[in-house]
Specification:
globular; binds D-xylitol-5-phosphate; binds zinc ion; 233 residues; TIM Barrel
Length: 233
C-alpha cells in the first residue's frame, strides 16, 4: 500500500530495563555509541505495576555518561512528587500513566514547569480519549504494546490500529497549528516487527530485550533502521 503522509524521522530509545544493572554507565555509553537517540528509563514502584526498579538517584548517576535525552517512563502512583526529583536528576522527557495521576492536566503542567517535555502513556486497554482536553500540553504520546511491568513480553498486535488512530490525532493537531508531538511505542519491539510499527505511525521506538539481549548493539540498531528505511522506499 503506498504511503501518503510525510514520514517522520525515527528515533530508537533503548530501555535500560534489560541492561546489565551492575554496569549501567558503560551500558548507556555503549548504546549511545551504537546510535541510540534517547535513553528510555523505566521507573516501577511495585504499586502501580508489579515490579520495582530504579529511581532519581540512578538517573543522576547515568546522566554524566551520555548527552542523549533521558526519557523517564513513570509507572508509579502517585506521580507528582517524583517529577521535580527526576527533573533535578537530569531527565529530559517525563511520561506518566493518566490513571496514576489524580489531576492529569496539573501533572502535565508540572513536568513542563520543571523544564522537561511531558507525555502521557496509554496501557493496551487505556483509551486515547484521555487526550481530548490536553493535546496542547503533551510533547509525547507513548502507547504501550505490552502491559507494563516487565521487559521481554510479546508485542500486542491491536497496538497497530491504536497507533494509526494516534497518528491521525497528532497530524490533525499539527495541521491546525499545534505543537509537534512524538508518537512512541513501548514493548515487544524487535527487528522483525519494527517496519510495520513504523508504517502504522510510530516515530519513537523503545526496545529493551531486543537490544540489550544481543551482543552487538550497533548491529541491532542498524538493522532496525534498515527495516524502517524499507517503509520510506
Ligand atoms: C515495560 C517497560 C518497557 C520494557 C520494554 O513495562 O515499560 O520499556 O523495558 O522491554 P522490551 O523491549 O523487552 O519489551
Ligand atoms: Zn517503558
Amino acid at each position: 500500500m503506498p504511503e501518503t503522509r510525510a514520514l517522520p524521522t525515527a528515533r530508537i530509545a533503548p530501555s535500560i530495563l534489560s541492561a546489565d544493572f551492575a554496569c549501567l554507565g558503560q551500558e548507556v555509553r555503549d548504546v549511545a555509541a551504537a546510535g541510540a537517540d534517547w535513553i528510555h528509563f523505566d521507573v516501577m514502584d511495585n504499586h502501580y505495576v508489579p515490579n520495582l526498579t530504579i529511581g532519581p538517584m540512578v538517573c543522576e548517576a547515568i546522566r554524566p555518561h551520555v548527552d542523549l535525552p533521558i526519557d523517564v517512563h513513570l509507572m508509579v502512583e502517585p506521580v507528582d512528587s517524583l517529577v521535580p526529583m527526576f527533573a533535578k536528576a537530569g531527565a529530559n522527557i517525563i511520561t506518566f500513566h493518566p490513571e496514576a495521576s489524580r489531576h492529569v492536566d496539573r501533572t502535565l503542567a508540572l513536568i513542563r514547569d520543571q523544564g522537561c517535555q511531558a507525555g502521557l502513556v496509554f496501557n493496551p486497554a487505556t483509551p486515547l480519549e484521555w487526550l481530548n482536553h490536553v493535546m496542547d500540553k503533551v510533547d509525547v504520546i507513548l502507547l504501550m504494546s505490552v502491559n507494563p511491568g516487565y521487559g521481554g513480553q510479546s508485542f500486542i498486535p491491536a497496538t497497530l490500529a491504536k497507533l494509526r488512530q494516534a497518528r491521525t490525532l497528532i497530524d490533525r493537531h499539527v495541521q491546525s497549528g499545534g505543537q509537534p508531538i512524538a508518537l512512541e511505542v513501548d514493548g515487544g519491539v524487535k527487528i522483525d516487527n519494527i517496519r510495520e510499527i513504523y508504517a502504522a505511525g510510530a516515530d519513537t521506538f523503545v526496545a529493551g530485550s531486543a537490544i540489550f539481549g544481543q551482543p552487538d548493539y550497533t548491529d541491532v540498531i542498524r538493522r532496525m533502521r534498515e527495516q524502517i528505511a524499507l517503509v520510506q522506499a
